[in-house]
From TrEMBL, chains A, B:
Cited PANTHER family: METHYLMALONYL-COA EPIMERASE (PTHR43048), METHYLMALONYL-COA EPIMERASE, MITOCHONDRIAL (PTHR43048:SF3)
Originating gene: MCEE
GO process annotations (BP): L-methylmalonyl-CoA metabolic process
Gene Ontology molecular function, alphabetical: metal ion binding; methylmalonyl-CoA epimerase activity
Domain VOC: 12-141
Organism: Branchiostoma lanceolatum (Common lancelet)
GO cellular component: mitochondrion
Pfam families named in the record: Glyoxalase_4
Record's keyword terms, sorted: Cobalt, Isomerase, Metal-binding
Name by which UniProt lists this protein: Methylmalonyl-CoA epimerase, mitochondrial
EC number, UniProt record: 5.1.99.1
Length: 141, 141
């Protein structure tokens, strides 16, 4: 009890995720027109997306395109037919403590129990209504 | 003519701009709940916004709130009442060449002539319809 101790810290911006209706033309924009280094297309069937990473030096853009019938970005692309920023991902050093403190501060987690994310690390998504309309992913770095 | 030369490069992600309906509660989320270092509220009357910067180590979030009657984020907040990601800003080393090449590749600029942005540097906004639904700001670093 007494003085509250901070048991976790926020780290770097890991990525900005952009849902795109056409993965090839989106990749071409960043690679051919803007000259960025981009990854190969990586299918992640267990997450329902194809991904392409765009390197920006200090962080990356993650282009997402639906894979399979129940992709988590299907609904987003129906509403945003041109595509759009789907979420941002910030690193934390202790995701269990982060979720504990956030939920006690009335910031809801969409999955209170961390799950393994697209990079093989534990992640939690926070409710956009509690984060100024932003879907915020926390990833244990 | 002949081999085309690349006369500019894409650099770091300078910031992710988030439009927020309540600047105090948005700042409190990042400062008090998440423990991030945040700036004072800075009014930028010539840009029609109040800003607060959230430091993330490798980049920053820029919280935006309308200032004055003709704020450029007023319409966005009417559509997105909870707030949301308004744009991302990527650095370039030569904004004039960047705009020249982008427009010749049919990526439209909202202001083809660079203007002085919120950080006192030349910026150009690219048309979201040509960038996968993302409002993309280029800033000469």
């Amino acid at each position: 009890m007494g003085v509250s101790e901070r048991l976790w810290s926020l780290g770097k911006l890991n990525h900005v995720a952009i849902a795109v209706p056409n993965l090839e033309s989106a990749t071409a924009l960043y690679r051919d027109v803007m000259g960025a280094k981009v990854s190969e297309v990586t299918p992640l069937p267990e997450h329902g997306v194809y991904t392409v990473f765009v390197e920006l030096g200090n962080t990356k853009l993650e282009l997402l395109h639906p894979l399979g019938e129940k992709s988590p970005i299907e609904g987003f692309l129906k509403k945003n037919t041109a595509g759009g920023i789907h979420h941002i991902c910030i690193e934390v050093d202790n995701i269990t403590e982060a979720v504990k403190q956030l939920t006690s501060s009335e910031v809801r987690a969409l999955n209170p129990e961390p799950k393994i994310g697209a990079h093989g690390k534990p992640v939690v998504f926070l409710h956009p209504k509690d984060c100024n309309g932003v879907l915020l992913e926390l990833e244990e770095a």
